[in-house]
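Good morning C.,

I know you're traveling, so I'll keep this short. The sequence:
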Amino acid sequence: MKRRTLLAGSAAALAATPLARPHAQRAVTIRWWYHFDDPKATPDELVAAFEKENPSIKIQAENIPWGGGGDYDNRLYTSIIAGKGPDTAMVKFNNLARLIEMDALVALDKWIDAWPARTDISADLWRLHTAPDGKRYYMPLQYVVLYLYVRLDLLAKQNLKTPTNFDEFLTAAKALTGGEQWGFGMRGGSGGHDSWMPFVFGTGAKPIKGGFVSAEAMAQNRYFIDLYRTHKVCPPSAPTDSFLQIVNNLKASRTAMAVHHISTANDMHATFGDAITAVPVPRGPMGGPNGGFATFGDGSTAVFSASKNQEAAWKWISWLSTGPNNVLYNKSAGQMTVTTSGAANWTLHQKRFVDATVQSLPMASVLPNVPQTADFTRVVWPQTTQKALLGQVPPDDMMRTFEKLFFG
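The tokens, ready to paste straight into the viewer:
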């Protein structure tokens, strides 16, 4: 009788005790690396909104200095090799092949295919985000297409129109150079490959095997180097100028034209109002995709294979790329939303800058998606280009160096 009573009491106690749910209440922390061009911008509002919707996931947002792209990439590679990388991070096309080679990425296809919001991202963006092996390792987050900033008020004084081809560009650059003002803010330092490519591949050459040493590319590269060495339409600091220098020179009226993208549009409009505009980069005579090259700049996210919380990391990056969340994100990033719904009512930039971006899409392109691209953008391009600008190597040798790096 005592044994039955004991058993009954134990059963009652067990019934009254809630069953343990070891995973239901356990919060996981996702480390996310990001960078905004505006140092005052933060993702705090986004993080708070996501955590409210997903209380079991905490986001540890870590702002990593960009440094023209090279600093960010170096830190990312080093952290992954050391086993101390984030769960997810903002990434670029130019390091996709290297990260695949390192087995550092998780293919996102199984999640993307089941994601209801995938249809709000255009087929063109999904095409660009598909790796050579047919898989999708990157999630679209933001994008830009490089265009040309032009000071309309300064052009008007010279009775010139905005340039559409390379002859018109050189004429304008010469006319706008004088005293302490230069016609073109060349970016010879870190990150300058993006604004160099429209010049070199703008008349039909392509960044494929044989393309760097084609007659068209070699001639256009000589044109580019001569802007500094022969025509002297660029500031003396051009060989080492990077992002901050070309932006600050344009804002200070030390330069009249520069190649950048919509992330700086609001700053330019605040400085000059309607006296500045943006137009597609100069292009060659053939027209269409064979007569121009506008560098496509992605801002994507990826989940790293070393992460112990890959599904939670996916929830975060897919949330960032969803409708109104992506619009809110790009208020801080200053770039274009990847969502069709968000673009339909875009109010974050003046229409003329949006138009220049959209008009440039037909000739948007990227560097070869190979492991060498990471070294090209971080080290080989800036070092070799600076030597050519300083007269230490001929422009044609510069192109042969690039061809050899990519294709042997």
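Safe travels,
E.
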